[in-house]
Amino acid sequence: MGKLIVVSNRLPVNISRHSDGLKVQRSVGGLATGLASYLAGRERLWIGWPGIHKEDLSHKDQQEITDLLAEQDCKPVFLTGMQIHGFYEGFSNKTIWPLFHYFSQFAEFEIRTWKQYRKVNELFCKEVLRVVEPDDQIWVHDYQLMLLPGMLREKLPHVKIGFFLHIPFPSFEIFRLLPWRIEILQGLLGADLVGFHTYDYVRHFLSSIQRLCGLDNTMGLVSVNSRQIKIDAFPMGIDYTRYAHAGQRKKVQEELSELRKKVGRRKVIFSVDRLDYTKGILQRLEAFDWYLSTHPQMRGKVVMILLAVPSRTGVEDYDQLRNHLEQLVGRINGSLGTIGWIPVWYLFRAVPFERLVALYKLADAALITPLRDGMNLIAKEYLAAKDDQRGVLILSEMAGAASELPEALTVNAFDKKAIVEAIDRALTMPAAEQKRRMRLMRERLSRYTVVRWAHDFLDSLEHQHQQQSTLGGRRLSLKISRGLLKEYKQASRRLLLLDYDGTLVDFAARPEDAGPDEELIELLKTLAGQPGNELVIISGRDRKTLDRWLKKTSASLIAEHGAWSKPAGRRWTSMGPRERDWKLVIRPILEVFSDRTPGSSVEEKAYSLVWHYRQVAPELAMVRTQEIKDALNKLIVNMDLGLYEGNKILEIKSTGIHKGRAAEPWLVGEPWDFVLAAGDDYTDEDLFAVISKEGYSIKIGSGPSRARFTMESVGQFRTLLTELAGSCHAASG
Ligand code: GDG
């Protein structure tokens, strides 16, 4: 296996300037720990921003940092203050962070910061491209780099790319507010594996790609062109033993006895977070205030230690939050405190690891009530640190961790009364019950650690990639396309049978918007005009549309899946008499369903009726399609009709009309020495069935097919056609 390349916004290092030069110190983070054992004996590289603005560094400094970091298996992406301002403080923290945590009222939608975000993702992409090798695994982290997987995929079609989001993925109704929502989804879909903390976030992501990109999934597997992407939940764990054994450290014991002396016999409620509006600090403080008002017997007997770790200082919303918090602390302490008892012990700073663990060990209850949180590792660390199994965790339902910790007292963080009740229950809970709950949760945390999490993710990425290789078995490789090109050049009689939608052009939201671009018209004209060529466009569209869109190309046309055909320069002829009676029965049924299903429509073609549902909410479309099938299946048993499910359509048509039959007049008796047939959906399978095994049949996209080869996308297929067109120019010119 090749090396592992981890890419995250920040490198796991701190750089400081000393009188004798720059110093790099590795910081201990969950992710780094999780990877350490996985990486034992394996080459690794971590790419990220080193935390200092580029303009504060001379060229020599940059070189020195690069060299120092290389010793730590790290590679810097140097960013200017302006880039950090737009990309990190701007788009990441003022757009994505609030929106993904359901604070849409705080989200700013600025083109300027979006552009910086894209630019910085490109810079990260460049750094990865400098070092990546074909066998490597690339693991991209978090919301600052959501475009990166897509950018890498464009350059590296076959390399293994995983992405993990550490914050929540919001529901579709929130995500859709983002003006650049499609770009973000396309970026993420560049990965082979997209991981989230919980299954709820997976569901939200799947629903967004379904509604915004029209991509369905089967058990979390999504096909994009002919790549299969897995979307799954990997709840991040902690370095359990580090916290569980920390109590044995002398420094922790000293801190603890110091704290115990200060607290005396009082009960302790501990609250610690980065100072962020998503963490619900004000709300929990108000709840504590209410608790003290409604439980006067507890005054003087309980304290809340509130540790707010500075974060994003200088940003207005955060400074305001700090002001509010300090006012509230002041008000509670002023109105309820007495000489000798301060209800809230407030600290605005980060504390060293040993003091943090001592506080965890001291606390009778941890009050962790974020309004929204991707996971929340503090809740897990509190439990792990409790080696005596005493203490109660009060945890918000809105933290990802809640789904793994059902033995905690879970609360709705907006429901102050529920928090008050939970505080009361926690402080009066019998020791045996505390132990029972603690034991179950600690056992789980000791099994699913951050190391297991990293292993699971990377193993799953490897597995997903192997699956890709199996699926890609029939992919039209470079070698085969060279052979195809050679045969095309050498042939003197060539037949090209090409489907239109999904083969020559991508799907549009409205079918009428998928007309050909100038480049396509030119390409088809060239192909049709080359000596010895017969070009047939074989489509499900009606005659009028094909005439209007393709008349300049002088290609032969087949409309309505073979109901009509028009050899170049001739008139349309139909495949046989039309049977109208069945439509009189079936059309009204489809219309009733259509009236009840916003976004759907019924189209009548000469030989078929089509129910279109591209614009219908996916869950509703699924229900309605099944209902229509149930209703019609009974009716058509004795008619010469079939029901066909295509790309967001359900078609009812005569079984004798299909693309294979329509192509026969071209195939029979003609001495072609090169045949190419291409299409993307079930209607093209009838065509592939009549192509001889020497001919080239190509399916665009994934899924089972009779075609000999597959290609990923319309873009790739058009590139191949352009090469064919160019090859004969070159030959004749
Ligand atoms: C994001 C997501 C998700 C905090 N104060 C001190 C201190 N810490 C350490 C804790 C813990 C970490 O920082 C905080 O982790 P969280 O998970 O609670 O929150 P975020 O920083 O918002 O992280 C979150 C996480 O990513 C992982 O995917 O869980 O939902 O928002 O490890 O111990 N450490 C020390 N002193 C402090 O004062 N030493």
At a glance:
With 733 residues, the chain is α/β, with parallel strands linked by helices.
Any overview of this molecule?
- It is a single chain.
- The two termini are 48 Å apart.
- The model has no long low-confidence stretch (mean pLDDT 91).
- The longest helix is centred in the middle third of the chain and has 22 residues, at 450-471.
- The chain is elongated.
- The strands form 5 sheets. The protein has a 9-stranded mixed β-sheet with strand order 5-4-1-6-7-8-11-10-9. It has an 8-stranded mixed β-sheet with strand order 22-21-20-19-18-27-28-29, with helices on both faces.
- The chain is α/β, with parallel strands linked by helices.
- The chain is 44% helix and 19% strand.
- Bound molecules: GDP-alpha-D-glucose.
- GDP-alpha-D-glucose binds next to β12, α13 and α14.
